[in-house]
Specification:
The complex is a heterodimer of chains A (243) and B (271). In chain A, the strands form three sheets. Chain A has a six-stranded mixed β-sheet with strand order 5-6-8-3-9-10. In chain A, strands 2-1-4 form a three-stranded antiparallel β-sheet, with helices on one face. A two-stranded antiparallel ribbon of chain A has the order 7-11. Chain A has five helices and eleven strands. In chain A, a hairpin with a 5-residue loop joins strand 1 and strand 2. Chain A folds into two domains: 110 residues, 3-Layer(aba) Sandwich (Rossmann fold), CATH 3.40.50.300; 67 residues, no CATH class. With 243 residues, chain A is of the alpha/beta class. Chain B has one domain. In chain B, strands 1-2 form a two-stranded antiparallel ribbon. Chain B is built from nine helices and two strands. Helix content of chain B is 67%, strand content 4%. In chain B, strand 1 and strand 2 form a beta hairpin. Classes of the chains: A alpha/beta (243), B mainly alpha (271). Chains A and B meet through strand 4, strand 5, helix 2 and helix 4 of A and helix 1 and helix 4 of B.
């Protein structure tokens, strides 16, 4: 007699759910950007969204982050949120250290331990006392990303978070993303780079205002998702990652 | 809340302190402006309509012009300082609020920064004035300058959150300041004592500074008029700031259209 089958453990509830998100721009000539986007992100999931320029990727992330109101739909978020916007949003006159202190106050973070660790990990500690206006675009983007991660949020919305990074920092970012996934964080990344796509657990393509499940890049016979080109990560032409 | 407010005010003031152009303008423009008017305008009697006594005050035209030229300088500088910061910080303030900075804290910090900047700039202008003319009551002159600096600081905030073009904001500040402060000065405008000028922002502050500066006390009506302008501009600016920093799903309070379910959004802000 075979032993009774134990029920499969139910999957953990998603940390982020979007249902029927619709958004149009313009009053006279309305341009429908999102037409009912529905998806979830579970704990420990690293989800990618790809799409052509103007497909509405950043609009979707702004809506998820609360920065933009959708015309229809709902977002449910279970936990704290970190949002790294596509544009670097910093104060030119304040230093790196002052930004971290200011956002620690906004997040009500008890200390700067994690922020300091992120600064070290992204290797820009030597610029702590430098005003943002004096930093390179890549270093500004490191701070832009650090601000999104410094309160160790459960859900991360990252809009092309590695713009302007050199290759080493780009790889460090993906190490960081892997750590976040391991620690059960829900990570949503907007990407436009073909060779990123193998890194995601789930990949969606935003097309005609709708989110389509792109085939997993880990299965080689999937025409919907371009395969990672062999040797892409060591290609000299790919050493600077820019939008 | 209090510590977040202190942090916000501190960084708002640090940002102002790093506005080297405005500080340079302040250090040089105010004394040069006072000095120029001091040498251009010859001494001589001129009448100034004092609202508190409904009487014309006979004062020295040179002294009066040096005093009123300070209004011209500080209104421009304070409005520029606050306007530039408000425009520059629009997206940054929004990010801070999305990250969890309470909007009342952000609003209170904006107001406090205006008060501190106005107080320091007006104090400096009143001290510079001492080098060209000794008013009877220094405190009254400072108060008059402070009231106008507050009004124009609040106007700078309003324009900073309202106008889409930096150039448009700068031009508006220059035009408003020019019309307002020039029309109030009897030497520059023969109609300066007309009653309709009581409706201008600098009327109350100028009444306070001239009356006190020439030893005729501080008119309460001038203070009230000035504060009305200040509060009006400030409330308008802060309401727009409040609206611009809204988050549609912050802490689950927002709803999207009646046809869709309520938003059960997260319990902490976004970065």
């Amino acid at each position: 007699m075979s032993p009774p089958l134990s029920p499969l453990p139910s999957p953990p509830p998603p940390l982020l759910s979007a249902e029927g998100i619709a958004k149009a721009y313009g009053h006279v000539r309305r341009r429908q950007v999102l037409r009912g986007v529905t998806f979830t992100v579970a704990p420990g999931a690293l989800v990618g969204i790809v799409g052509e320029n103007g497909a509405g990727k950043s609009t979707l992330l702004k809506i998820l982050a609360g920065a933009l109101r959708p015309d229809e739909g709902r977002v449910e978020l279970d936990g704290t949120l970190g949002y790294c916007p596509q544009d670097v949003i910093l104060n030119d006159t304040l230093t790196v250290a002052q930004h971290l202190d200011y956002f620690a106050a906004a997040y009500r973070a008890p200390n700067l331990t994690r922020a300091d660790a992120l600064v070290d990990r992204l290797a820009y500690g030597q610029y702590r006392q430098a005003p943002v206006a004096t930093l390179s675009g890549g270093t500004q983007q490191k701070l832009n990303l650090t601000i999104a991660l410094m309160h160790d949020p459960q859900v991360l919305l990252l809009d092309e978070p590695y713009q302007g990074f050199d290759w080493e920092t780009y790889l460090r970012f993906w190490d960081l993303a892997a750590d976040l996934r391991t620690r059960g964080r829900a990570v949503l990344v907007i990407s436009h780079l073909v060779f990123d796509q193998a890194r995601f657990d789930t990949l969606y393509q935003l097309r005609d205002g709708r989110l389509e499940a792109a085939a997993s890049p880990t299965t080689p016979d999937t025409p919907a998702t371009p395969a990672v080109p062999a040797g892409a990560e060591s290609s000299p032409s790919a050493r600077e990652v820019r939008s | 809340m209090i510590s977040a407010w202190v942090t916000s005010v501190r960084y708002a003031l640090i940002e102002q302190a790093r506005n080297r152009f405005a500080l340079g303008l302040l250090l040089i423009f105010v004394p040069v402006w006072d000095w120029l008017f001091g040498i251009l305008i010859p001494p001589g009697p001129v009448a100034f309509n004092l609202q508190s006594s409904h009487a014309f005050l006979q004062v020295d035209g040179r002294d009066l012009t040096v005093l009123t030229s300070g209004f011209n300088a500080i209104t421009l500088i304070v409005a520029f300082m606050i306007f530039a910061a408000a425009r520059r910080d629009g997206a940054f303030d929004r990010r801070l609020v999305l990250a969890g900075l309470p909007r009342p804290v952000a609003v209170a910090a904006k107001a406090a920064a205006i008060v501190v900047v106005a107080a320091l700039v007006s104090l400096y202008a009143a001290l510079v004035l001492e080098a060209f003319w000794r008013p009877v009551a220094f405190g009254a002159v400072w108060l008059g300058y402070l009231l106008d600096a507050l009004t124009y600081g609040a106007l700078g905030l309003l324009l900073g959150v309202l106008v889409s073009s930096e150039l448009a904001g700068f031009f508006l500040i220059i035009m408003v300041s020019l019309i307002d402060t020039t029309l109030q000065a009897p030497i520059e405008n023969p109609l300066a004592n007309k009653d309709f000028l009581a409706g201008f922002p600098s009327y109350g502050p100028m009444q306070v500074a001239v009356s006190g500066g020439f030893g005729h006390g501080v008119p309460g009506g001038g203070i009230v008029l000035a504060l009305l302008w200040f509060v009006g501009f400030l409330v308008a600016g802060l309401v727009i700031f409040w609206w611009r920093t809204r988050a549609w799903n912050a802490r689950g309070r927002r709803r999207v259209r009646a046809s869709t379910p309520s938003v059960a959004a997260g319990n902490a802000g976004a970065g």
